[in-house]
Write a structure and sequence with these properties.
By secondary structure, this protein is mostly helical. The protein is about 70% helix and about 0% strand.
Length: about 300
């Protein structure tokens, strides 16, 4: 009797060598991506003098938490964190809702002048009014020094809308047609069929909006005054500026005392600590969305 055919192809030396090279290259690439975050973490935890001398490269030395303690003691930090969380949450929800509804509407052939409205939105991706007209527009709309200035301008995101539209177009039309035959309207088809099947692209939009809202800074500088609407990024930037000014005063022989002030003058450690404080929330959220992210971007970007 002949030998049984197993269906498994014997791997040669070239295949094994290819696998080894792949693992090594991908491992090195992963280290390159992870190391900057690790470097910031160990420098924020290490002895400040060693950090200033650039001696903290791979392992932390003289571990302490004074830098984080100093940041947490910044006046008004708790309120700034609340404002950042509020604008991130509300802004993300509004962006997700508007882009989902608008993206779905753009897939409906029966929409009045659908091509015109679609192209009208696309144009805004390439042409902007500029800083001064944008400022005047915000002022005329009465959004200055209001919480709405953080969430209303991001109501419609053309790029996000295109991703949602393209993804929805990949869903078999037969599903909606069967629901239509059962008497389902647009809203029911959107909520019962389209949204459950669009989780990958919706998760992608959520991630884009979360990162954008959390890291936003210039709108606070341009459109708000006082401390009532200060965000975390804004107040940390002011803290860093104060530290820089104090450091300059000390270099020029000025008399500056106090333990808190001494910590503030360490600019390098302050930068690393503030970076860790600002990126930590996004790093904690990303693992829960990552499994949808790649699929959503790839499918949503196939055609536009």
């Amino acid at each position: 009797m002949g030998k049984a055919v197993t269906g498994k192809k014997k791997r040669g030396m070239a295949d094994r060598l290819f696998d080894i090279v792949n693992v090594v290259l991908l491992g090195l690439f992963a280290l390159v991506c992870i190391y900057p975050f690790y470097y910031i973490l160990i420098n924020s935890l290490s002895n400040n003098k060693l950090v200033e001398l650039g001696k903290i490269v791979f392992l932390p030395q003289g571990i302490h938490f004074n830098n984080f303690r100093d940041v947490l003691e910044i006046q008004g930090l708790n309120h700034a964190v609340f404002i950042s969380l509020a604008r991130t949450t509300v802004g993300t929800c509004i962006t997700l809702l508007s882009c989902t509804v608008l993206g779905y509407a753009m897939t409906r052939q029966e929409l009045w002048h659908r091509k015109f409205w679609y192209r009208f939105l696309i144009v805004t991706m390439y042409f902007g009014a500029g800083l001064i007209p944008g400022y005047l527009n915000i002022k005329r709309l009465g959004l200055m020094n209001t919480f709405g200035v953080y969430v209303i301008p991001c109501l419609v995101g053309p790029y996000n809308m295109i991703l949602v539209k393209t993804y929805i177009e990949s869903i078999p039309q037969s599903l909606e047609e069967s629901a239509l035959m059962d008497g389902a309207g647009y809203l029911k088809r959107l909520t019962r069929i389209v949204v459950p099947l669009s989780k990958p692209i919706l998760a992608t939009i959520i991630l884009f909006s979360l990162v954008g809202q959390w890291n936003a800074y210039m709108d606070t500088v341009l459109y708000t005054s006082g401390t009532r609407l200060q965000t975390l990024q804004s107040i940390l930037y002011q803290y860093l500026n104060s530290a820089r000014q104090l450091a300059d005063m000390m270099k020029k022989g000025g008399r500056v005392s106090g333990e808190m002030v001494m910590h503030m003058t360490n600019l390098q450690s302050a930068r690393h600590t503030m970076t860790m404080v600002t990126i930590s929330p996004i790093l904690m959220v990303y693992p829960f969305i990552q499994r949808y992210y790649v699929k959503g971007v790839m499918i949503g970007a196939v055609k536009g």
